[in-house]
Fold:
Amino acid sequence: MASRATPALLLVLAAAPAGCDDPPRAAPVADARPSAPPPAPSREGCARTGGVDGVEGDPSCVVTSASEDAMRAALKSLSIRVTAAPLEVVGGGTALLTVTIENTSSAETTLFLEARARPAGPRTDWSRVVGVPEPRPAAPEVPRLLFPMTTTDSHDRDVDALPTVAGTGAPPPPPALLAVHLRPGGKLTRVVSWWALRIPAPAPAVTLDGGHRYVPKTTAQNLTPGEYTVTLELPFYGLGREERKVTTRLRVTRTPLPDGGLKRGF
Structure:
């Protein structure tokens, strides 16, 4: 006769879990920590103040492109000046010119500069100037921030008549474009030397008897007393030549005689 399970045993069997089922798992708890923001995209250019010479050799300042009007727009936030020390120089003497580019606005301003290996067009033939050593073999052309200088007298005439030679015919390499982020009140400076000298044009070459060709040289001479205007062109990108210019004035005094100009009695 088949055995019958008691009611108590049926309740126990019904409450017992099946041996092949996994125990229930707890729901995953969401991470309450906020996720880190994505890193900000890096911008081209460098942030600098002080001497502009260090910009030339800093690869982080190099950018691939810039708007033609970017530098012109930045001019509205800049104060550009050149100061001379001393303001009065004897003929043949030297003064130091300091170019200062200052951000006078309350926001950061970006300057766009162009570094060139050499200027376009004919180059100065320094071999025809007395006292200048013969040029050495050409070194690799390295882009530099050029500050061409011109000195004019009170009649607006250039005091130098530097001899030139034609270029190689090949166009100069394209300029390297540099971007400098200048903080409010930040300054970039460049110091250049100025000599109270003029270089007259050399005499033309002549052919002597026997077919020998003679190429005369020229000699630098002391500037005569008077007022002179010194103009420098800044290496701003995308600006015309007149927009790049900054000027200052210096006075040249008479060169003292070696003996002080004293009369000698014999």
